[in-house]
Write a structure and sequence with these properties.
Structural class: mainly alpha
Oligomer: single chain
Helix content: over 70%
Number of helices: 27
């Protein structure tokens, strides 16, 4: 078992350090068909890379891997039903629950439709039931063995086994969630082993089972807490929901287990959450800083020395710099990351994607356009999105008007049905309008700043804020309602950056008045309301903040980029309600 884990860890290091994408496939083909642990580990890595770069071909291939692994696990469960030991049965059950979880995620990624959502929801429900019953069984096994709770928890994070375990009295706790009560995250193991020769192997097995369960449980809750509203409605109908706090707590525990290969996967999941997902919806800068600090600690202390200077750590360290405002430093690190991952195309393109956004953040429109044009040519992920970013950046730079207009005109025809339906629909709709605009450079600048805002990358300097205000004051007279509402939204953000809350509120209210009459582009209204909610929260006007956030959440459905904006609105609702309770 330990040799298997070491082999998996070595393959993971090789993948991230040498950018050798063949090692995962080789490991799967060699050991996967008869070794479920190796097979599920390969599935995790394939799914992580596929979802990270959103490569449709990779997503389908990953789904195939997971499906094969799931079928193998079902067969093994049947074979072990009579002659298998309790530990073997439990291990297979947890692995099967993990495969169901991955099947659900990849099913949602392959195609976003109600049929796939329902199938994914049923798999999630099966996974939940298996994780739940597995926890009950682990508790039962530990009670029979008399394992000390605190000592076993320490084993997970320290990665070592003592010769004996001391007795500790059990203090039962009560909770509203029966699953959490049985699981209690990491506090449900009791008593002690009487015999050294028999206890150490049992501790190893139960420690391994607990880490497996914690990882699957944590991933389950984190995924459910982040899924888009269209899927969330289906999941809620099935009778369960995700608890992000419990998910993060479980993954943090697993990430601290140095001798478990799942600690690597848990660390990657946490880094992705803190640095790529969390910044898109948090409203409190302090929470962003907390996430950055936690990510830094994971890179420094949990990934291990063997991962230092790999493209993985370079990528996330560069992301930390970008979030801290050191865009030039982030650019250099992302460029180094792209060089390091030259042999791993998907990862290299991820680095180029971030380089493009860094160029947008510092308003290097021309260079950003070149980067996104290259991505549109090379990447298989949402060519429409890359084409749209390339076109509006070209227009904002004041470059070739004819080239920009031609690209915008071609985009709706180039966009095919992909897994990115919401994003492709948005890009197609915006491209059609911009292609016939008589104020192309102005509207392309608006569109570029709008994308920076929606992607939570609009970090304005004082001079940039003043430039936006001046540009909008000298705007063309024949703007569409959507463009005019966007103009005032950006002015409101600029005044807020400059510290003038009164003028910021005035501009945002004007934008709200204009945007709410435009039923086709309700997403602008949602953006304005979220900005007003943040402003009122900053000013201590919690009732107004709550009203704006609730209006954004309850009054609008099916608008452009809803999946991206939903978590931000949800976060603002929580922040406003919490602030009101404190008062």
């Amino acid at each position: 078992m330990e040799e298997c884990d070491e082999l998996i860890k070595d393959v993971f290091v090789s993948y991230f350090k040498e950018c050798n994408q063949q090692v995962i496939d080789t490991l799967y083909k060699k050991y996967g068909p008869y070794n479920p642990r190796t097979s599920i580990a390969c599935c995790y890595m394939k799914c992580i890379v596929a979802v990270s770069c959103w490569n449709e071909e990779a997503i389908r291939e990953s789904y195939k891997y997971v499906k094969e692994t799931h079928n193998m696990l079902i067969k093994l469960q049947v074979e072990h039903q009579i002659f298998g030991t309790p530990t073997e049965k439990l291990r297979l059950k947890v692995l099967t629950a993990e495969s169901l979880l991955l099947l659900a995620v990849m099913k949602m990624a392959i195609k976003r439709c109600i049929k796939h959502y329902l199938k994914a929801g049923m798999n999630l429900r099966k996974s939940w039931k298996m994780f739940s019953s597995s926890q009950l069984k682990i508790v039962e096994l530990c009670e029979n063995a008399g394992i000390n709770s605190t000592k076993l928890d320490e084993l997970i994070t320290e990665g070592s086994l003592p010769e004996t375990l001391e007795m500790q009295e059990d203090t039962p706790t009560e909770t509203e969630d029966s699953f959490v009560q049985s699981f209690d995250l990491v506090e449900d193991f009791r008593s002690f082993f009487d015999n050294k020769e028999t206890c150490v192997p049992a501790v190893k097995e139960l420690k391994e089972l607990k880490v497996m369960s914690l990882f699957g449980y944590g991933l389950f809750h984190l995924i459910l807490s982040l899924i888009p509203p269209s899927v969330l409605r289906v999941v809620n109908l099935l009778g369960f929901h995700g608890n992000r706090y419990l998910g993060l707590t479980s993954l943090n525990t697993v990430a601290s287990a140095p001798d478990e290969y799942r600690s690597i996967l848990a660390s990657i999941a946490l880094l992705w959450y803190h640095l790529s997902l969390r910044p898109t919806f948090i409203s409190n800068p302090q929470h962003l800083n907390t996430g950055i600090e936690q990510a830094y600690q994971i890179i420094e202390h949990k990934l291990g020395k063997e991962f230092q200077d790999t493209w993985l750590t370079l990528y996330f360290t560069a992301t930390i710099r970008k979030l801290q405002g050191d865009v030039e430093g982030a650019l250099q690190m992302f460029q180094t990351t792209a060089i390091k991952s030259a042999h791993l195309k998907e990862c290299k393109l991820m680095a180029y994607y971030e380089i493009g956004w860094c160029q947008l953040i510092v308003w290097n429109w021309g260079q950003a356009s070149e980067i996104f044009s290259d991505l549109m040519a090379e990447a298989r992920w949402s060519k429409g999105f890359y084409g749209y970013l390339a076109a509006i950046s070209m227009g904002a730079s004041g470059g070739s008007v004819s080239g920009c207009r031609a690209l915008l005109s071609e985009l709706p025809g180039r966009i095919k049905k992909t897994v990115n339906v919401e994003l492709d629909t948005f890009c197609s709709s915006k491209s059609e309008k911009l292609a016939i605009s008589q104020n192309l450079e102005y509207e392309c600048k608006l569109a570029t700043l709008e994308m920076l805002y929606v992607w939570k990358c609009l970090t304005l300097t004082e001079s940039q804020s003043q430039e936006i205000i001046q540009t909008v004051n000298n705007r063309p007279l024949d703007l569409s309602p959507t463009s005019l509402a966007t103009s005032y939204l950006l002015v409101g953000i600029s005044w807020r950056t400059l510290g003038d809350s009164t003028k910021a509120e005035q501009a945002l209210n004007i934008s709200d008045t204009i945007a709410k009459d435009d039923e086709k582009d309700n997403y602008i209204t949602v953006c304005v309301l979220s900005e007003l909610a943040e402003l009122y929260l900053q000013l201590g006007q919690t009732e107004k903040s709550k009203q704006a956030a609730e209006r954004a959440r309850n009054d609008y459905r099916g608008y452009h980029l809803e999946n991206r904006l939903y978590n931000r609105i949800h976060s603002l609702n929580i922040s406003s309600s919490s602030a009101q309770v404190k008062l």
